[in-house]
Amino acid sequence: ETGVTQSPTHLIKTRGQQVTLRCSSQSGHNTVSWYQQALGQGPQFIFQYYREEENGRGNFPPRFSGLQFPNYSSELNVNALELDDSALYLCASSLAGLGNTIYFGEGSWLTVV
Amino acid sequence: AQRVTQPEKLLSVFKGAPVELKCNYSYSGSPELFWYVQYSRQRLQLLLRHISRESIKGFTADLNKGETSFHLKKPFAQEEDSAMYYCALSTMNRDDKIIFGKGTRLHILP
User: Fold this and answer.
1) Tens of pLDDT along chain B (110 residues)?
2) What is the pLDDT, as a whole number, of residue B51?
3) Which stretch of DSSP H or E encloses residue B24?
4) DSSP label at residue B93
5) Which pairing describes strands A19-24 and A5-7: parallel, antiparallel, or unpaired?
6) Interchain contact, B103 vs A107, CB within 8 Å
7) d(CA A14, CA A21)
8) Interface of A with B (CB under 8 A)
9) What is the DSSP string of A25-65?
10) Which residue in the set A43, A55, A107 is minimally distant from B95, CB to CB?
11) CA-CA to B47 of 20 to 30 Å: which in A94, B67, B101, B107?
12) What is the rounded average pLDDT of the residues A81-88?
């Protein structure tokens, strides 16, 4: 076990609703990244948080937002859900520093209907 | 543009035969290249990275900057190698984001 835990594991939402996904990073890790993995695709970088601030962002609209807490856990929030937001959302944690290994959680499956 | 291309969605290989999973990348800087693996019902995990120059579970990968490739190889496939394999690169920028390919499913035939 790598220690990165995500919740919930599965959820179904209606188009237009909002969702919050949670992630507890591995002990000692201060950096959290979020990825979206659509069916049949590789993971796509959404954003990264370091010391409670956004440290980089991929090509995702502003309705994708996040938070990192003092204990380094993190949330991913998605507003105004669209059908195309249906995907596996992966959280990954690491210790800050280029080249350090990142560890992935098992992901949260989001289905938007 | 930064891109990772894995041309094969599915690769079927007989047990004991050699394996080669292809990966090409596009990046103007000096990236770090990785292979990640996802076994059935398990989380995504790092298999190897080019800077380590190590062999994991019999797999190796050599970075060829001239051909912008990072193919994954194993001389003799084993049934437990069946999994989804993702090639990825890190831009080595401040955010250290990782760009993944679409993945290749490796199926080892008995």
Assistant:
1) 789 999 999 999 999 999 999 999 998 888 889 999 999 988 999 999 888 777 789 999 989 989 999 999 999 999 999 999 999 998 767 667 889 999 999 999 99
2) 80
3) strand B24-26
4) S
5) antiparallel
6) no
7) 15
8) 2, 4, 31, 33, 35, 40-45, 48, 55-58, 90, 94, 98-107
9) PPTT--EEEEEEE-TTS--EEEEEEETTEEEEE-S--TTEE
10) A55
11) B67
12) 97
Amino acid at B96: D
Tokens of B26: 């596009």
- Residue B24, chain A, CB below 8 Å: the answer is no
Cβ-based neighbour number of residue A96 at 10 Å? 13
Which residues of chain B from 79 to 108 reach within 8 Å of chain A, CB to CB?
86, 88, 90, 92-103
List CB contacts (< 8 A) between A45 and chain B.
97-99
Which residues, in sequence order, are CB contacts of A22 under 8 Å at separation 6+?
A6, A7, A73, A74, A75
Question: At A98, is the pLDDT very low, low, confident or very high (cuts 50, 70, 90)?
Answer: low
Structure tokens at A68: 């990192």
CB B89 within 8 A of CB B25: yes
